[in-house]
Amino acid sequence: MKLKKTGFIVIFLCLFMLPAYGLVFKSGDDITVAEDQVIDDDLIAFGQKILIKGDVNGDLYAFGQSVTVLGNIQGTIFCGAGNIDIKAKSVKSIWAGGGNISINGRVSRNVVLAGGQLYIDGDAGIGRDLKAFGGNLEIDGDVAGSIKAGVGKFTMNGSGGDVRVDADKIVIESGTEISGDLIVRGKNKPEIEDGAVISGEIKFEEPVEKEKEQPSLSTVAPMIGFLALFLKVVFFIAKILVGILLIATAKNFVRRVMDTLINEPWKSLGFGALGLFVIPIVVVILIALLIGLPLAIFGIYLYTIFFYVSSIFIALVIGEKLIALFKKEGDISLYLSFLVGMVVLFIITLIPVLGFIVKFFVVLFGGGMFLLGTLNLCREIKEKELI
User: Fold this and answer.
1) Which of 46, 126, 321, 384 could disulfide-link to 143, CB 3.0 to 4.6 Å?
2) Is residue 40 within 8 Å of residue 25, measured between CB atoms?
3) Domain that holds residue 282
4) Domain boundary at 166, 189, 216, which?
């Protein structure tokens, strides 16, 4: 069972890694891709307001306060924002989470939504299935496949195949055409207006209240295991995003730190050992002296960074070396190197004993190269009197 879970994670991470082969990164308060602009790679956008009018010949990753997509997207849209308005002329699939989400245009495959207010416009067409979870879901468009929803209120005035809904209130309006079954689970029976067409069966299930039982260890253990695995994946994705931002905003510094390990591996190991064991001792002494409390807080902050960035820089070096085995000519993308290295480290750290040993040396070498690279940079700045 554990191997099966690990396999699913590896597949997921490999799929997540694929966009790095072609990657365009944009960040800022307002990000706009003009109507006549074409992005020939995957696009990652972080900003307060994101407007995509042009075409993206790959996947789109958009995260901000407001996201609007109007152009053609050849790949999949992965989106997270307070307000999401997708009016793409064509898109393969959509995965979106946010406060208000509106979907229009043609989607050739699946749509997965999670949010407060979810709306499938009357002009929208979904080629396969729709899955939605959140507050209110309103469907006026056409869904060729099945519809599965877990929401507070479900309203439908469009078309779909099998419809399975778990909701407190369900309204099937007169313009609805369901070519399959309507299966409803909730406190109230569905309101089905005259004129609505349902080809299959209509099934209604009321939730059964079970007597509260004291949770046993056998029932709690799988939940704890799943939660731990889920958090591990979430933290992994968060570190991926931090690494991408670091490369995008401080590419030269990242390259310098990588070269530090490549050129001075044993010196990096020594600095890593110093950072791992000396910093906490110094922090304890400063706290004991009281007068050194501000420096102690800074030391804790430095120690946290030391641990966090160690795997990022090690992943960059590992990924670059692995890719260099297959790519003999041309530059190697730091983004691709980072994602390949992170996936390799993630998989290795899932192995019980070996994982712990690898983590230990990742902190030593990774933290050491970060400290040494930063120190070398500070020395160079001082020698050149740049500050």
Assistant:
1) 126
2) no
3) 231-383
4) 166
